[in-house]
Amino acid sequence: MTVFFCNNSYKYEIEAVMKLFCPLESFEFVFDGAYTGGEGTVLVSVADKLSVTAELHGKKVTREAVLCAEADRELTLCRMLYSAMSEITGVTPEWGCLTGIRPVKKVNALISQGCDRDMVYERLHEKYCIGRNKSDLSYLTAVTQKPVLDSLDPKSFSLYVAIPFCPTRCSYCSFVSHSIRSKGARELIPQYVDMLCSELSQLGEILKGKNAFCDTVYIGGGTPTSLSAVQLDKIMKTIKKSIDISRIREYTVEAGRADTITEDKLKAIRDNGATRISINPQTMQDSVLTAIGRQHTAAQFEECFALARRLGFDNINTDTIAGLPTDTLEGFKDTIDRLISMDPESITVHTLTVKRSAELFKSAESFREGYLTDNTVSRMVDYAFGALTENEYMPYYLYRQKNTVGNLENVGYAKKGKESLYNVYIMEEAQNILACGASGSTKLIDRETGKITRHFNYKFPYEYISRYEKMTAYKTEVEKFLSEQ
Ligand code: SF4
């Protein structure tokens, strides 16, 4: 499609709105060129009035508005485009033209101005055309996470430890994670574990004498339980030895996939102090598990869950994904219902993200535009919202990603008091994160200015191992930052 801009260059936001309706389309942008019109064109114009004309599917729709202050023009044009594209396609994305990844921040700002649930909806609808369901979801999330945010000590940090290995690669995955099926990846693991332990020890040295304390630990992946019990034990013992974790309020290990979980690994995790684990079925439909390349069944997941309970884990999260290939609305409802009946402390509902690196994106027929804008996935997440809130799981963190099916969201639901602190703090960018391991991203927040500085470790384990010295040069800046706190 070609988007023409006349007297403006609001490309970024206009493209984001177009992608709500045409997610797989590529766009050509023409600035102040001759507008030709015709099928597959959009004109965004600022003159003596604002106007948007979209021509698609044999329909031509124009919206016009008075010329407003310059600061309001971009959003006004986005609303006009949203309205025109809704009329052409018959699709009304529930988040409206709100394209940011942290909608709860906007709700928090409105609540602090004294807005209640209805007022929040009125303001968001007027400004972004947001639907009632998404406004309520954001509002409830803001209310649930407030005590978690209020309990944050500004001198605290969270420690993130990355284990970028998985048993096999799921077809929808776009993370940097290596299947340990390959000999190369398997052979890297011992070296990786050693290097990770060195980085943890180095961080421990940096932290000595600093006015900062560890509040939460999160060992994530990949699938940390791709490692052996001995390797997990080594990493967790190194954390304990290097970093003072006597004040932590939460210690999560993302156990991940049922095909990696064994009793000895769970015991190693438990005995080293983890207070929360995540066991993630993604779906309880065996045919869907096969379709996405996961080599375990729903029954295996249930066995792992029961095993974890027997071993004393009393805070278990389970992840699901709405919109997986071959899944149906009925299948997804069944997944949610079965998980609720198992009574985990939290259930996270992601929406499938189709990124370019995922195999799925390259091959699956099902990912035509019709599928991406179809409202089946929207009904899935709405069902989850209704069923979970009826069963005392409240939304407590919420974020959106680009290229998500139906432009939908990811939501963590938890029983009261079981909200993951780490998830809230990272999503709201409220706490310093010190990260170790390949793909780890350290985030330092200047308490006075709110400015966030990020330092990245190399993404791939082989780079992380071979270029460790070069990569960790930034640690001196971390040390300086912590010294000045
Ligand atoms: S388990 Fe998670 S990180 Fe690993 S391949 Fe599957 S989606 Fe990717």
Q: Beta fraction of the residues?
A: 15-25%
Shape descriptor: globular
CATH architecture of the largest domain: Alpha-Beta Horseshoe
Query: Which regions have little confidence, pLDDT < 50, spanning 5+ residues?
Result: 364-370
Spatial strand arrangement across the major sheet: 14-15-13-12-11-10-9-6-16
Largest sheet data: 9 strands, mixed
Q: What count of helical segments does DSSP give?
A: 18
Query: Looking at CATH, which topology of the largest domain would you report?
Result: pyruvate-formate lyase- activating enzyme
What do you see in this structure?
The chain is of the alpha/beta class and 485 residues long. It has helices spanning 11-21, 70-89, 103-112, 117-128, 132-150, 183-207, 229-242, 263-271, 286-291, 298-310, 329-342, 359-363, 369-373, 376-390, 421-427, 461-466, 468-471, 475-483; strands at residues 2-6, 28-31, 41-46, 49-56, 59-66, 156-163, 165-166, 178-179, 213-221, 250-256, 276-279, 316-322, 346-351, 394-400, 409-414, 432-436, 441-445, 452-456. The strands form 4 sheets. A 9-stranded mixed sheet has the order 14-15-13-12-11-10-9-6-16, sandwiched between helices. Strands 2-1-3-4-5 form a 5-stranded mixed sheet, with helices on one face. It has a two-stranded parallel ribbon with strand order 7-8. β4 and β5 form a beta hairpin. α6 (183-207) packs parallel to α7 (229-242). The longest helix is centred in the middle third of the chain and has 25 residues, at 183-207. The structure holds iron/sulfur cluster.
